[in-house]
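Assemble and predict.
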Amino acid sequence: MKPCNNETMKQMKKDIILAGVGGQGILSIAATIGTAAVNSNLFLKQSEVHGMSQRGGDVQSHLRLSSKKISSDLIPNSKADIIISVEPMEALRYLPMLSPDGWVVTNIKAFDNIANYPDIAKVLDEINSLPRHIALDAHQIAKDIGSLRSANIVVLGAATPFLDLDYSILENALKSIFGNKGEKVVQANLDALKAGKEFAEKNLH
Amino acid sequence: MQKLLLLGDEAIAQGAIDAGLSGIYAYPGTPSTEITEYVQRSREAKDKNIRSEWSANEKTAMESAIGMSYAGKRAMVCMKHVGLNVAADGFINSAITGANGGLIVVAADDPSMHSSQNEQDSRFYGKFAMIPILEPSSQQEAYDMVRYAFEYSEKMKTPVLFRITTRLAHSRAGVERMKSIEQNLVKLPENLKQYILLPALARKQYKVLLNNQEKFIKESENSNFNNYYDNENEKLGIITCGLAYNYLAENFEDHKIPYPVLSIRQYPAPTKLVEKIYDDCDELLILEEGAPVIEELLKGLLNKGKPIKGRFDGTIPRDGELNPKIVADSLGITYHEYGDIPEIVTGRPPSFCPGCSHIDSYKALNEALLDYSKGRVFADIGCYTLGALEPYNAINSCVDMGASITMAIGAADAGLVPAVAVIGDSTFTHSGMTGLLDAINNKSPITVLILDNSTTGMTGGQKSSALGKIEQICIGLGVEKEHMHILKPLKKYHEENVSVMKSELKYNGVSVIIPRRECVQTLNKRMRQKLKVKEVES
């Protein structure tokens, strides 16, 4: 978290909206990026949702990384560089936060815990109509590689091409965050990160 | 010194641990909960023997902290904004007794009501009690201010109100620590009558408080936490309170604001600095997170001076949390808009977790009440308030901690019989017990459901003061044994549970029904920990 006096250090600034439903693991994504940012000597602010909404409601986190000091805990409307969402409808909810040249990286598996969830095909049409997006079935990918509980980290992996953070620093962040849960969990998450990254690279045109 | 990535709440906790804290007292409440949780988890706090167990409610917490301060040690008491209503008796009078060991009262406000029933601004309480208020603008400042607040409290022998809001409480940033200092030893007040608020003595103590007011203002004027930025364009002067400054700075390249700015983070308001910005500028814009406290002071009743813009004249919305966009709008700065939320997106309100015991309790209650007209279920504050939503529509009120039982008493007195109260286990010991005593003394025809999930659920599963004690409390208060039932809220017992509820609804007196099943969240957490222990062992 040191200020970047080092002139060889490149200037960077990433404003990221993390979206999902309470309990889907967006705070693990936030913690991973946050740890990686700190280890990259960047400034960081990360606003989270605790309390009532965590009970199955829509939740978001504002994650701001910068080589310069950050002022606001909240990202201004239409200034976010990326929306990373573990649920497709939730990705759309935060579009007003996205910069006109920003990216949306989202899971396409619906989390249907409400009576009036819209037609999923129409939700995906909306996502596919966005000019810059990566849409992936993170649950299927997680299942295919045997990391069923790491769908959130698959989505994070798919966002890595846009984060401007060293991939190895992100890997190390996963190791330190999941380290106390044992070697298996760490490896599952590393695999998930890689699978997501590979999907994004294949689908970037 | 070491840098940590901390929530605002955690920065306050670490700041207190490093500043010689001896005890923290609290009842869980969003967005304040993580302060006490951090101290409970901290190895350092354990090594230093800092006391950190949950209290039964905010009032008992407040009073315990006053007691620790009386004995000369540094104490902190934490609560959400509405918790300060519960603690208000002790809080207001602690301003009259004054402090001995440093005493900090943290009130975490929730503008926009993310997890609350109202958005009251605790700065009113500080002003009401006539004590200093600190309002940090960043996580680092929150950390630093705690030490300052303890020193200030001891120097001026006054409790200090520490006001934060949700955004700071629940946002992380890097925090640099200071060298840790030792705790105070036990040292009683020099005047052993300082805390006796008998009228004759209270009048003397009150004069001390009144005489301190000038000193508090002077301290604010010289404080490092109140800054004046003498920028060039004096057409507009801007006063920001707490973290509102950040939203202002966000809107200018490299945070260079063209207008003079007074950034206030310590109260009472620094009179001389306010006078300077008023005199120097043509008009003022006031940016406050919460209520228009400073704005109202400046405008006064008649508003005959220079134009003051803010929440009263609509420059800033009258309610809700600030953000960079609202501040930009108030300055005429426009953003390139991306567009609206697509119409297809629907709301996703919070809901019961799958498998939650409250689901079964409400299904049974709804069925038991089919024979009666609607509108007779008085609920309380907790996860079970979600019973208000579709498809349950099971409750008719949620007002304050404990109001279920007491509102049922009043409604039954008015003729709404039977009336039903629904309250959680932790809320029951927080503020429900005294109401139940009233009901028994009043012989009220009410049925009280104490939904016992054996935890404080909504705030994340903190230990409930009620654990293992509910039946004894009820019997002790005078509930008749034959009208107290413990149920297992599970689908397979549905018919049985409905029939117990039906028969108690007919009873012309106080009945207590306790549907008891552990919260699925705490159950899962326990199971995961068990699994982990097994893995380590194998």
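Residues 227-331 of chain B form a domain with the Rossmann fold fold (CATH 3.40.50.920).
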